[in-house]
Structure formats: C-alpha cells, structure tokens
C-alpha cells in the first residue's frame, strides 16, 4: 500500500464537496464507457443498466443516497494536460460505514499510482470520519479490478445476484 500521503509525480490532488460533484462528469463518462465495454461479454444485465444511465441520474442518485452522510470528491490533475485525469467519490458517517462510491483513472494515466493514491486518500478520510468499515462495490464484469482493490486491503464479502422481471 502507498499510504494516505501518496502523491504520484506530476499529479496534483484537490478535494471538493457535494456541491462540486459535476466536476467528475467527463471522467465519469469514461468510467461508464469502460463499464459498458467490460459488461458486454461479462455482465449483460449490468450492460442494460449502464446504457440507460446518464451522469445526471448518477449524480442525483449519489446525492440522495448520501443526503445525511459526508460526501468527498477528490480529483487528480495533471497540470501538463491542463485537466483532471482521475477521481474518487467517497462517503461515510461516524460510527457507520464508509464507501468508495466511484473511482476512475483515465486509461492513459493508469499504472502510475494515481488510482492507489485516490483510494488511500479516501480510506484515510473515512478513518478520520470514524467509519467502522469501508466498502466498495465492483460489478461482475470488472474482475480485472479485484487485484487492485485487494492490494489496498479490500476483500470480497458477498456476491449479489440479480434477476430482473421479464416482460
């Protein structure tokens, strides 16, 4: 693990609140495209959901779900590129659970420690909040992400199976 003070070379990190959630929209679109690509072969039920979801719907879902919880948005910026290259949205409440709600790093910036730094920063923030456990959800088609999360102390606890009504 990199630790909560991890800072990959050349990358700046900024912290934002729930009112600035729209800052992640361009990167979230990249995440949605990644999820659609991975779901085509591995999670067709999730594909239908992702194809129908807009950023506005996801933003509203996050705000409603966390209306009584703290919400933290962290952006990773590459000053040379002039914009954000990754983000992590985390939530939590003292004495309750913390959650990594969404995390993404642009393909061109992967394997540089940015995702690990974002995840470690979120975990440290949730620790400071006083959460009793921290969770994240990975869709069934995104198995390639599991080793990354395991390196940062996350391990599987449940497998949720979903059936949608026909018709």
Q: Please, could you describe this protein's structure?
A:
The chain has 167 residues and is α+β, with helices and mostly antiparallel strands. The chain has one domain: Gcn5-related N-acetyltransferase (GNAT) (Aminopeptidase, 3-Layer(aba) Sandwich), CATH 3.40.630.30. The protein has five helices and five strands. It has a five-stranded mixed β-sheet with strand order 1-2-3-4-5, with helices on both faces. The radius of gyration is 16 Å and the shape is globular.
Overall 3D form: globular
**Distance N to C terminus:** 47 Å
Record field, number of beta strands: 5
Strand-residue proportion: 15-25%
Helices, by number, come to 5
What integer value in Å does the Rg equal? 16 Å
CATH architecture: 3-Layer(aba) Sandwich
Secondary structure layout:
Layout: E1 12-16, H1 25-42, H2 44-52, H3 55-65, E2 70-78, E3 83-92, E4 97-105, H4 114-129, E5 133-136, H5 146-151
Parallel strand pairs: 4-5
Antiparallel strand pairs: 1-2, 2-3, 3-4
Helix pairs in contact: 1-2
Question: Nutshell version of this structure?
Answer:
It is built from five helices and five strands, in the order E-H-H-H-E-E-E-H-E-H. With 167 residues, the protein is of the alpha+beta class.
């Amino acid at each position: 693990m990199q630790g909560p003070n991890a800072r990959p070379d050349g990358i700046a990190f900024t912290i934002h609140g729930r009112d600035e959630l729209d800052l992640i929209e361009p990167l979230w679109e990249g995440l949605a495209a990644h999820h659609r690509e991975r779901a085509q072969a591995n999670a067709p039920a999730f594909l239908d959901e992702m194809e129908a979801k807009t950023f506005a719907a996801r933003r509203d879902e996050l705000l409603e779900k966390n209306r009584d919880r703290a919400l933290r948005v962290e952006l990773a910026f590459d000053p040379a590129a002039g914009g954000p290259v990754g983000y992590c949205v985390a939530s939590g409440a003292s004495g309750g659970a913390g959650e990594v709600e969404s995390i993404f790093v642009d393909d061109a910036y992967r394997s540089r420690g940015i995702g690990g730094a974002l995840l470690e920063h979120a975990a440290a923030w949730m620790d400071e909040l006083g959460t009793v456990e921290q969770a994240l959800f990975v869709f069934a088609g995104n198995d390639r992400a599991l080793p990354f999360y395991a390196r940062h102390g996350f391990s599987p606890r449940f497998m949720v199976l979903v059936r949608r009504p026909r018709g």
